[in-house]
Amino acid sequence: EGRLKEIIESMIAGVVIIDPETHTIIDVNSVAAKMIGAEKDEIIGSVCHRYICPAEIGACPITDLEQTVDKSEKVLLTHLGEKISILKSVTRIYINKHPYLLESFIDITDLKRAESTLLDAYGKLKELDVIINHSPAVVWLWKAAPGWPVEYVSENLTGFGYLPEDFTSGRIPYASIIHPDDLSRVGTEVEQYTREGRME
Q: What is the pLDDT of residue 149?
């Protein structure tokens, strides 16, 4: 048992050990205590329902609903009742022949926030794509690099006898459709913008 305490205390994940019969928390490591926002002495001896787990009494995912929780997205309740997004696993262990639940979890709040930001940005890009492709003008996105590789072309390019992938694949160089009289001017502008840091 002493060795077990050393192991869970050394883990970088939050760890809570629970008695499955009474749902009483019998041990917690420092990482979990910090995430919960309370001292270990306050947490140990408490019932997990509505303290660190939002499950209703009689509806424990493990002991009542017989679910498997393995790297599952769950919610951890803090001491103040705030909710933290976590990735959680629950394992059945035995200490002195008595069964316990060992819950380990990591905070994925920042990951969920980044995911939400990316989804929001993707949604805005999709809206912008619809607007661009209903515009009579052709919109290009290309790098100020040798050969001016094209990264995006609006779909209405097809009206000019080309497909966007003709250019995004590199099959047709962007420079090849610039009028010869304009090549020198465009090249000079690209170099100027690149030096000034106005283009990537």
A: 81
> 6-10, 87-91, 159-163 — which is least confidently predicted?
159-163
Tokens of 181: 């009289």
Sign of CA dihedral 93, 95, 97, 100: negative
Token output for 118 = 């990316």
Alpha carbon distances (Å) from 118 to 113, 115, 126:
9, 5, 12
pTM: 0.56
Residue type present at position 64:
D
Which helix (DSSP H) or strand (DSSP E) does residue 83 occupy?
A: strand 83-95
Top-confidence residue, 178 or 200: 178
Residues 113 and 85: their CA atoms lie apart, in Å, by 10
Q: CA 17, 9, 86: angle at the middle one, nearest 5?
A: 60
**Amino acid, res. 146:** P
